[in-house]
Design brief:
4 domains; alpha/beta; Rossmann fold; 13 strands; five-stranded parallel beta sheet; OB fold (Dihydrolipoamide Acetyltransferase, E2P); about 20% strand
Length: about 400
């Protein structure tokens, strides 16, 4: 590229020719998209507007009519892949593609792609049950994404208000099929997710062909739904239909009516349930009162309630019996102790020196108090003291007995 400045700007011709030179160096590429416009003008050329099914973007493609004829029949909003080379027109500064081959994407190929996308998203954990958020018990405001003036919208709103008349709706009517469906549904989902008063979002549309429901399997829309904090209910098509949005939603309803029944409780059923709870509580309370009354009656019928002194008198008898028992036990122990003491005293007395003296024996002591046990120690004229049973006596030794 060349350098420019405010003093030395490039002319339009230089710029557009430079772009053409760069684009011409690009080779042909395969492009996939939906045909939103097909204009077979007079002559040999046809013009196609090819759009991206996920975002609001499109490119212009021209081709020979024979290329179109080879791909016929092409239904409305047909999804195709084409082999085209980009071209830059220097005169008006526009980019176009010249298609050399067009192939319609078959249902089998779309199913294979969806299955591959489904497996990838499942491996990422977008369909895991632990990611799903519980629906609120009684939402005050429900976000509703639906087609414009459709039966699906009427089914959801009428059934919800029939079940709970005070429920409010924040409705976003969008394109739910073909061009613009993904972008409009995604934008509506972002708006309702940002509204903090919306407690749950229902995305719904009626049944349709496989191609009609493809926008609800778009990867961008599925990832956007997975990132939402507000619970999402998917009610797309009929029960047999299963777009990828059903798998990532927090709850999958088989029909729009089922979605309304799942999101909003039935006021008649709730009143009946509350009435049943009240009756059950009343019966329970009455039973408890009857039970306690019966217990009180049984207590009052007991003898102690008729004569409260029965408790004192019965305890008095026990105490008197215990006292008598204690006295008898103590007296028996005391008598036994006296007998034992008497026997010990008798044994001690029998073994004492006094008992020996009482039998006529005496204890002879020398003048120094030493007890005399050997008569050979006596000397003639030595003074002795004899201890008898009832006193003492003095004696003089004649000497040892020869």
């Amino acid at each position: 590229m060349f350098e420019t400045s405010s003093e030395a700007p490039a002319t339009v011709r230089v710029v557009t020719e430079a772009i053409k030179e760069y684009v011409d160096r690009l080779g042909p590429i395969w492009i996939e998209g939906e045909i939103s416009e097909l204009n077979e003008r007079s002559g040999m050329m046809a013009f196609i507007r090819l759009r991206d099914p996920s975002v609001d973007m499109s490119i212009s493609v021209m081709c020979h009519k024979s290329v179109i004829a080879a791909a016929q029949p092409l239904p409305a909003n047909a999804r195709v892949v084409l082999y085209a080379k980009p071209s830059w027109y220097t005169k008006n500064g526009s980019l176009s593609f010249s298609a050399r081959e067009i192939r319609q994407v078959g249902v089998g190929e779309l199913l294979a792609r969806l299955e591959a996308l489904k497996n990838n998203l499942a491996q990422e954990g977008l369909f895991d049950s632990d990611r799903k958020v519980a629906l609120p018990l009684l939402p005050q405001k429900i976000g509703l994404i639906c087609g414009r003036n459709t039966d699906a919208e009427k089914d959801v709103v009428e059934n919800a208000k029939r079940r709970w008349p005070s429920v409010q709706f924040e409705i976003r009517e969008v394109t739910v099929q073909g061009a613009g469906a993904v972008s409009e549904v995604s934008e509506a989902l972002r708006e309702l997710e940002a509204d903090k008063t919306v407690e749950v979002i229902i995305i719904t549309r009626g049944g349709g062909s496989f191609e009609d429901l493809l926008p609800f399997s778009d990867e961008g829309l599925v990832r956007l739904a997975a990132s939402c904090n507000t619970p999402i209910v998917s009610a797309i098509g009929h029960e047999k239909d299963s777009p990828l949005l059903d798998l990532v939603a927090d709850y999958r309803a088989s029909t729009p009516t089922d979605a309304a029944k799942r999101v909003v409780p039935d006021i008649a059923e709730e009143i009946a349930m509350i009435t049943a709870f009240k009756d059950r509580s009343r019966r329970r309370l009455v039973n408890l009162i009857d039970l306690e009354s019966a217990r009180i009656t049984n207590f009052m019928a007991r003898p102690v309630m008729k004569d409260p002194m029965v408790l004192v008198s019965s305890r008095e008898e026990v105490i008197v019996a215990l006292k008598d028992r204690s006295n008898r036990s103590f007296a028996a122990r005391l008598k036994l102790a006296k007998e034992e003491l008497k026997q010990i005293k008798a044994r001690v007395r029998a073994l004492s020196p006094q008992a020996t003296l009482d039998r006529g024996y005496s204890v002879v002591q020398l003048s120094n108090g030493e007890i005399l046990t050997d008569p050979k120690r006596l000397k003639a004229g030595e003074q002795l003291r004899m201890r008898l049973a009832k006193g003492e006596a003095a004696a003089t030794a004649n000497g040892p007995d020869k």
